[in-house]
Design brief:
There is one protein chain. By secondary structure, this protein is α/β, with parallel strands linked by helices. About 45% of the residues lie in helices and about 15% in strands. The protein has helices at about 15-20, 25-40, 55-70, 85-95, 110-125, 145-150, 170-185, 225-235, 290-300, 325-335, 340-345, 355-370, 385-390, 405-410, 425-435, 435-455, 455-475; strands at about 5, 45-50, 75-80, 135-140, 155-160, 190, 205-210, 250, 255-260, 265, 275-280, 310-315, 345-350, 375, 395-400, 415. Helix 4 (about 85-95) crosses helix 5 (about 110-125). It starts with a strand and ends with a helix.
Length: about 475
């Protein structure tokens, strides 16, 4: 059985971007792509990561790979495989790079041996497809061990780290010590923020490239109010009947999709269309602090006024590289059961099915568009795409001042929480927005414009073109 899996990404019409980013930015993208294609001279670009669905990396690759294809640049996306032990090790690395001990397990010689072995097996398969001279973009710690075998076969390898924290300590150091030998073979390193770059990474080979959103993806495309209602009643998180045919959206490949599946919902009652809803959409990862949002809402938002809370994540069994999801979700359910009845009736725990990734994205889109306030109360966050997604939809966002969230929420475009553990402060910020819809709308409009200026995919592609163009020139 093959370890590798190729993700089939349909072309995304790049000309659509012009309507969002304007003529000059669009023209720059076209011109850069033409020049880059010339430099590439028949070589291919490979993206390698560890999951096709769920999480920010998969989300971005769906869009960016589609646009690059449409720009006539040969690009592939391959997902590596591994066993449970491999993913337990890589989750440990992920947690520690975020400054958290995670399962507190070891990262010693035995773990390095297993990590190397699994990636060596993946490399054998990958090297049947990758040619000498190709450009390979490896994503995150799960793939770092591919750098050496790919580089030895003549590929130009860049490692892109989507995670990090603004400090370093014993915990982060342990993870980086584990990864460092594997990364020596990379020619370039990409981080989302300069604060995330470990001191031993050579500065001249490092690029800072923030992530981006795609305005036309099923996750972010415009949905009218009827459709938002239709999708939310279909999945079972909003009271009432789905208006006829109001469950449609445009898929990534341009065809019309319909939301037909239900979500798995833990709730005693559902909000109606007029009820303000506070939403956090995240993987069931401890660092996203769904549990803290639940407590903050119960103790500081619900007692002081109206509103519901929805905690929304992917169906826990479906995210292959995240072994902790089920446990974190179970803890939230236990906590929900203990809530006072009046508050419990105003909180929903929602698992969205991942069987159809576009349908899942349309569900998230409707959930975010229906939100009166979007929360992202993470303890650590590489970037926090959910923040940009909420801002793009003109929603006011209340989020922890951690990691890349600090680059997104600036000058009145949302509310930053300087102490992510301060539940009273979180509750007060949410309450303020719920109680002043005009101010919330103003904030939402400023948020949308800021994302348009700084975090739409064309900028992301231009930065990659610059990096890869330089590496090709060096060869
Ligand atoms: N997401 C999703 N379906 C879900 C839950 C989350 O598509 O059921 C998406 C979410 O909309 C966002 C991504 O997963 O695009 C999470 O990215 P983020 O950078 O916020 O966090 P990460 O998961 O990468 O730590």
């Amino acid at each position: 059985m093959s370890l590798l899996f190729t993700v089939q990404v349909p072309n995304r019409p790049v000309e659509h971007l012009e309507t969002v980013v304007g003529g000059p930015r669009y023209a720059r993208l076209r011109a850069t792509a033409a020049e880059f294609r010339r430099r590439l001279g028949g070589r291919r670009i490979w993206n390698v990561n560890s999951t096709a669905v769920g999480g920010g990396v998969a989300e971005m690759l769906q869009a960016l790979v589609g646009y690059v294809r449409d720009l006539d640049i040969p690009i592939e996306w391959t997902v590596i495989g591994g066993d449970a032990e491999f993913f337990a090790i890589t989750k440990r690395l992920h947690n520690r790079i975020h400054g958290s001990t995670g399962d507190a397990g070891p990262l010693g010689a035995a773990e390095a041996g297993h990590y190397t072995e699994v990636l060596a097996a993946n490399a054998v398969e990958l090297l049947r497809q990758v040619s000498s001279g190709d450009l390979v973009l490896l994503h995150d710690p799960q793939t770092a061990g591919l750098a050496a075998p790919l580089a030895a076969a003549g590929a130009t390898v860049v490692w892109r780290c989507h995670i990090g924290v603004d400090w370093d300590d014993e915990i982060t150091h342990g993870a980086w010590q584990f990864l460092r030998p594997y990364l020596a073979a990379a020619r370039g390193y990409v981080f989302s923020r300069s604060r995330y770059v470990p001191s031993w990474v050579p500065e001249r080979s490092t690029s800072i490239i923030p992530p981006s959103i795609d305005p036309f993806s099923p996750k972010n495309q415009e949905l009218d109010r009827q459709t938002v209602r239709g999708i939310l009643t279909t999945i079972g998180v909003l009271d009432g009947h789905a208006p006829d045919r109001a469950n449609r959206f445009v898929r990534g490949d341009g065809t019309v999709g319909e939301v037909v599946r239900g979500a798995s919902v833990v709730a005693e009652s559902l909000p109606g269309p007029a009820d303000p809803v506070v939403v956090q959409v995240s993987r069931w990862d401890r660092l996203k602090d769904m549990s803290g949002v639940l407590r903050g809402f119960a103790d500081h938002v619900a007692p002081a006024g109206d509103g519901y809370l929805m905690l929304v994540g992917p169906a826990v069994a479906d995210v292959s590289d995240d072994p902790e999801g089920a446990a974190v979700y179970a803890e939230c359910v236990a906590q929900w059961r203990e809530l006072p009845p009046g508050v419990r009736a105003r909180t929903l725990l929602v698992n969205l099915p991942l069987n159809d990734i576009d349908e899942n994205a349309a569900m998230v889109n409707a959930v975010q568009r229906n939100a009166a306030v979007i929360a992202q109360k993470s303890m650590a966050e590489g970037f926090g795409l959910t923040v940009a997604e909420g801002m793009w939809k003109g929603r006011p966002v209340v989020a922890s001042a951690v990691g890349g969230i600090q680059d997104q929420i600036v000058d009145g475009t949302g509310i930053l929480l300087h102490d992510s553990r301060d539940l009273g402060g979180f509750g007060a910020a949410v309450r303020r927005l719920l109680d002043d819809p005009d101010a919330a709308n103003r904030m939402g409009r400023a948020a949308h414009e800021h994302v348009r200026q700084s975090f739409v995919g064309d900028l992301h592609l231009l930065r990659y073109a610059e990096l890869f163009g330089d590496l090709l020139a060096e060869r």
